[in-house]
Design goal:
32% strand, Elongation Factor Tu (Ef-tu), domain 3, alpha/beta, 21% helix, 238 residues, Rossmann fold, six-stranded antiparallel sheet, 5 helices, five-stranded parallel sheet
């Protein structure tokens, strides 16, 4: 396993509680849309065993052509040790990145794609949308649906409906409206449904989609293959 130590080159305050940390891209390092990474703070590997409280699994919110590894995360007033340390970091500070993998690359199967997310989960989908804008081959259209009760919706300059690009973006601030919209989207029995959020959010979305007749193979989760059986039937989860 290769560990890349790299520096923070910019910190963007997306909303009062959400920050994007842009990291220098290590030489030769690349990734694909929908990728996640392990982000580790100084001291995580100082002892005999890694200090897991200083390591987090994070989505990469940028594309390689943006020349920075972007990590977008919500940091609340009362937060974990990891988030408390991260909040204090400044441009020039070093962090480590390793174990890059993508569970949710954009499938190009001549179907409609639906991106279902909660809050900062939208960061996982930002690269998928940018990739689609650059090359729309074999994707009929994309619809993004995000729920965020804070009403400080993320990335409004990207997640804005663009009819000419066959892209629509929808934000809601309550669960009732959100799940009604999911049911409406699920009338497309041939679509691909990507879901990103907490485990509870995944379970609720899968339940609604399955009730509407959407098959497990149409549901894409940001989970390793070994974890998919916890959410979808193992014989149909791949």
């Amino acid at each position: 396993m290769k560990i890349y130590w790299t520096k923070i080159n910019k910190i963007i305050e997306e909303t009062p509680e959400v920050k994007t940390y842009l990291l220098d891209c290590p030489e030769g390092y690349t990734w694909e849309e929908g990728a996640h990474i392990h982000l580790a703070l100084e001291g995580f590997n100082a002892g005999e065993k890694p200090n897991r409280s200083l390591i987090r699994h994070m989505s990469i919110s940028t594309m390689p052509n943006e020349k920075s590894v972007g990590i977008t995360t919500r940091i609340k007033e009362n937060c974990s040790e990891f988030k408390a340390i991260l909040r204090k970091l400044e441009v020039g500070n070093e962090v480590a990145v390793f174990k890059t993998h993508s569970n949710v690359p954009l499938k190009r199967e001549d179907k409609n794609v639906y991106l279902l997310s909660s809050g900062v989960g939208l960061a996982t989908f930002r690269p998928l949308v940018l990739d689609y804008f650059e090359r729309a081959d074999n994707v009929n259209q994309i619809h993004s649906l995000n729920i965020d009760s804070s009403k400080d919706f993320l990335f409004p300059e990207i997640f804005e409906s663009a009819p000419d690009k066959k892209f629509t973006s929808q934000f809601v601030d309550n669960r009732k409206d959100y799940y009604e919209e999911v049911k409406n989207l699920a009338t497309d029995k041939d679509g691909l449904f990507y879901v990103v959020g907490s485990d509870e959010f995944l379970v609720q979305n899968i339940e609604v989609l399955r009730e509407q007749g959407i098959s497990p193979e149409q549901i894409k989760l940001d989970k390793h293959d070994r974890q998919l059986s916890d959410f979808l039937p193992s014989d149909l989860s791949v």
